[in-house]
Amino acid sequence: MSMLKRLDDALIAVVNLMILISSVAMSLLVFFLIMSRYFFGSSMIGVLELATVAALWLYMFGAILSSRNNDHLTVDFLEKAITNPKQKAAYDLLRSILVLFPAIFMLFLARDMLNWGIMRPQTTPSLGIPLLVQQGPMLAASVFFTAYALRDILRAVAQLKLTNSEGA
How far is CA 168 from CA 52, 86, 163, 164, in A? Predict the structure, then answer.
């Protein structure tokens, strides 16, 4: 398990770096776009495309981080109301199972999108950026979402077993 933890930490370090790079890039590109429209009366060709690519990377990697930290789907009032450890473990299991289904659905959609992009390559209109550059973070996010949902299910099952053995 220690090896999985180190792998997760390494991957999240990369995710954090990508969040930093994409947020700085998106901020600078949008700032440049606004300034060019203000000072020159028109936008620079391709800046909006680059900002959109940076935004997609930022959103998807932010979602990966949220999924890792188990912040993606919570009902605060319900979660705080559950004080019984067995009920809390059952709630965590149910929540994790509910997260797994859309994660798997997104994984299949991302795979199909990737296959489509490989078979019929498309590019952005002005800069000719391959759409695979925008599809990459969606595929990565869906893989991470599924992996973390499975991790959360295993944790909840283990916690449920622990509470059952303590109660027995």
Answer: 55, 12, 9, 6
Instruction: Give dist(CA 64, CA 19) in Å, integer.
Output: 10
Q: Tell me the C-alpha distance between 142 and 110, whole Å.
A: 7
Distance CA 93, CA 153 (A): 6
Give 10-residue mean pLDDT values along the chain (168 residues). 87 94 96 90 87 94 91 73 90 91 95 92 91 90 94 94 78
Whether residue 72 contacts residue 102, with contact meaning beta carbons closer than 8 Å, is answered with no
Q: 123: helix, coil or strand?
A: strand
Every domain of the chain and the residues it spans: 2-167
3-state secondary structure of 39: helix
Per-residue model confidence (pLDDT) at position 73 = 61
How many Cα atoms within 13 Å fall on the side-chain side of residue 87?
Answer: 7
Alpha helices in 41-131 (DSSP H): 47-68, 76-81, 85-119
DSSP state of 45: T
**Model pTM?**
0.84
Half-sphere exposure of 154 (CA within 13 A, CB side): 7
Q: Is the distance from CB of 107 to CB of 145 less than 8 angstroms?
A: yes
- pLDDT of amino acid 62: 93
